[in-house]
Amino acid sequence: MVAQLLPHAVLIAFSAAILLPLLWLLRVALTDKTTAYKIPPEWGQASIGNFVEIFTGYPFFNYFINSVTVAIGATVIALPLAAAIAYAFARYNTGGMSLRLVVLSSQMLPPVILVLPLFTLFLKAQLLNSLVGLIAAHLTISLPFLAWLLVAFFDRNIALVEEAARVDGATRLQTFLRITLPVAAPGILAAGLLSFILSWNEFLFALILSGPQTNTLPVGLSSFQTHRGVDISLLSAATICAILPVFVLLPFMRRYLIKGLSLGALK
Amino acid sequence: MLLSPATGGNLTLTQRDRRFGYLLTAPGLAVLLVVITFPLFFTVFTSFYDYTLLTPNHDTFIGGENYQEAADEEYLPGSLWVTVKFVLASVVIEFIIGFIVALSLNATDRFKTVYYLILLAPLLINPVVVGLLWRMLLHSELGIVNYAIGLVGIRPVSWLGDPTIAFWTVVLTDIWHQVSFMAILLLAGLAALPREPYEAARMDGASPLRCFFYITLPLMRPVIFVALLLRMIFAIKTFDIVFIMTKGGPGTATDIISYFIYRAAFFGLDIGRASAMAVGLLIIIIVLTALLYRYMRSLN
Question: ipTM of this predicted complex?
Answer without folding.
Answer: 0.90
